[in-house]
Recover the amino acids of this structure.
């Protein structure tokens, strides 16, 4: 795997998934780490995030936040896997506060599922 450069079908699908998540209102985190693509979208009381390491490895998660934009707990939902699957799963989550949305922090989440490097969320999208 050569990364996200569009050479293979899997790479083109990952790039398409990144376009879809950007169209859904996710913003680049601004806290870039070399070799990673990160994004976030703040909602009413939550932040949804993704981190792409390579085509085969991505993290997506939803976290509860307080009125100041600080993460208050372990994720209420997370996914770790290929880019396309992680982003698709994140985009399919029910809106926060709806009947089927994840509500309770997953205690004891492994360290890799703790909040990504951006720990403060701006109040503006």
């Amino acid at each position: 795997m050569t990364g996200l450069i569009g050479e293979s079908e899997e790479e083109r699908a990952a790039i398409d998934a990144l376009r879809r998540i950007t169209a859904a209102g996710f913003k680049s985190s601004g806290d870039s780490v070399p070799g990673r693509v990160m994004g976030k979208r703040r909602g009413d009381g939550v932040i949804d995030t993704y981190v792409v390491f390579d085509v085969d490895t991505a993290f997506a998660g939803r976290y509860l936040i307080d009125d100041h934009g600080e993460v208050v707990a372990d994720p209420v939902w997370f996914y770790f896997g290929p880019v396309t699957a992680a982003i698709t799963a994140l985009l399919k989550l029910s809106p926060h506060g709806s009947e089927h949305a994840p509500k309770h922090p997953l205690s004891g989440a492994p360290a890799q599922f703790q909040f990504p490097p951006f720990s403060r969320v701006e109040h503006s999208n």
In short: The helical segments are 9-23, 83-92. The two ends are 33 Å apart (CA to CA).
